Amino acid sequence: MTTRVPVAVEPTRDEHVVAAVEEAGGELVGLDQARVLVWLGDPDGFPALPDAVEWVALKTAGIEGFVNAGVLDDKRTWTNASGFYAENVAEHALALLLTGLRQIHTSIRDHWDKEPIDTAVRTLRGATVAIVGAGGIGVSLTPRLKAGGARVLAVNRSGRPVEGSDETLPSSRMDEVWRRTDHVVLAAPSTPETHHLINAESLAALPAHCWIVNVARGPLVDQHALYWALRGGEIAGAALDVTDPEPPAADDPLWSLPNCIITPHIANPSSGLTRELAPWVAENLRRFVAGAELISTVSADRDY
Amino acid sequence: MTTRVPVAVEPTRDEHVVAAVEEAGGELVGLDQARVLVWLGDPDGFPALPDAVEWVALKTAGIEGFVNAGVLDDKRTWTNASGFYAENVAEHALALLLTGLRQIHTSIRDHWDKEPIDTAVRTLRGATVAIVGAGGIGVSLTPRLKAGGARVLAVNRSGRPVEGSDETLPSSRMDEVWRRTDHVVLAAPSTPETHHLINAESLAALPAHCWIVNVARGPLVDQHALYWALRGGEIAGAALDVTDPEPPAADDPLWSLPNCIITPHIANPSSGLTRELAPWVAENLRRFVAGAELISTVSADRDY
């Protein structure tokens, strides 16, 4: 008879995650008895960890909050949820891009003001879409864009070809990306390197018909520069699921722009979050039981 | 030396269509000298046709306006633009469905009201989408839906399998379609058979999470019944690019519903219309020159 791995699921024993843990060979225990902690909460309230905890699974893709709070240590393995929500986020990115291109936001606001709406409609077909930070989300988004007739220009650090894309460029060639793309989807993590990647200079290099979609993190965009570019028609529009800060202030001028769409950080809706996460917790737990390498490990000092 | 076919392009000599005509072996002439008329106008103003005109190419997909105006006769061949705009309309249908599922319309209206928006977000992944009237638009829409992880239930008159769909049902089994699908895209022509296909009964049979997208014709939907179904939460939402009448009256209660998205008949935007149409005019003209069968012929008495 195999011994089951003692796993703590905190701060709430979510039904989907608990079922996945039990199915994958885990036994639900309190943190004081656990070898594994699945932490479904925020950095606030993260518990002091007993030394016996060998692996902590975090629920989010972006873990800068945990890093900044000093939660991560080097005494055990840490995993994030990068890639686990990729399909969901990719779907939201496509939805935002199409809403903008097809002028659905304008239709909602201006009702049947047909002539100006009609002439502003653009198509994805034949357009080049740059996916900046083409990891899991990029791989999920690419076939959706290709099915819509777009060309995909992936951008990652190495420039190693991204599955399914038409071309991959390294991030060292960003200047070229801005000049060569029609639209931009931001899917990169928030790091010093990606801070204000969209700024006055990149906005000026992008074409006037460009839509920028951000499903990554707010700090990738210099919102002040974005505001003026949107107001001046330097680009066609922006669709943001993330902002800096979140939410934007009630009097943030971005709210008033007709060519700016903002959704409240729902690309990965929390309503479905644990359901999405559960199979990945199970997969990693099976690997843990087997002594295999875990998926999506992170460390505090990694420049991810 | 081949004689060029005399073609009239009226009422405006659109540059894209004229270029396509000349490239395909046509010579631009006045209507009194023409064997072919490419009519880029509405039924109003349609000219008296000289007997020498053997073929008239109409610019729209739905031709009920021409039929009702008594324009079509049986003295020559008539073609419509069915299928020529399929990619464009399919893109708009997907955009409308995703806008609804991802709650982008609600985000635009309610700003960062995160909790209720977040919990209302749904995904295309794993959902069944019925395409009712699966012709050219359906064939174009199917790979877009499949790339998004949906299952496609095509519905046509014959039930003959539609390319790429997971299952095709004949329209005689509509009752079953309403019960088995998650979402509905209407892409059928407006005929007596499709009049008020969406009515109190079909709305009651559809699931509460259902989104209905109409990129076909307004009369397919009983808007009174739709209003009450949307208001009562019988279905989740409707996204209409076409209505009956068009536009809806300014005080039409549909405008006030938070779960109804209306775009002003722009699935096939007139801004790009002649550009989309041009290659098809060229293809049909090449066929005409070669004495081959034309694509997309129609007749007044056809129950299309």
Structural description of this entry:
- Two copies of one chain form a homodimer.
- By secondary structure, chain A is α/β, with parallel strands linked by helices.
- Chain A folds into two domains: 5-84 and 269-298, NAD(P)-binding Rossmann-like Domain (Rossmann fold); 86-262, Rossmann fold (3-Layer(aba) Sandwich).
- The first copy, chain A, is 33% helix and 17% strand.
- The first copy, chain A, has ten helices and 13 strands.
- Chain A has helices at residues 15-23, 64-68, 86-101, 104-110, 114-120, 136-147, 174-180, 200-205, 223-231, 270-290, and strands at residues 5-10, 26-28, 36-39, 55-58, 77-79, 128-132, 151-156, 167-170, 183-186, 211-214, 237-240, 260-262, 297-298.
- The two termini of chain A are 40 Å apart.
- The interface between A and B is large, with 48 and 48 residues.
- Chains A, B: GO terms for molecular function: NAD binding; oxidoreductase activity.
- Chains A, B: This is Hydroxyacid dehydrogenase.
Layout: helices, strands, pairs:
The structure is a homodimer of 304-residue chains.
Chain A: E1 5-10, H1 15-23, E2 26-28, E3 36-39, E4 55-58, H2 64-68, E5 77-79, H3 86-101, H4 104-110, H5 114-120, E6 128-132, H6 136-147, E7 151-156, E8 167-170, H7 174-180, E9 183-186, H8 200-205, E10 211-214, H9 223-231, E11 237-240, E12 260-262, H10 270-290, E13 297-298
Parallel strand pairs in A: 1-2, 1-3, 3-4, 4-5, 6-7, 6-9, 7-8, 9-10, 10-11, 11-12
Antiparallel strand pairs in A: 5-13
Keywords (chains A, B): NAD, Oxidoreductase
Protein name (chains A, B): Hydroxyacid dehydrogenase
Organism (chains A, B): Gordonia oryzae
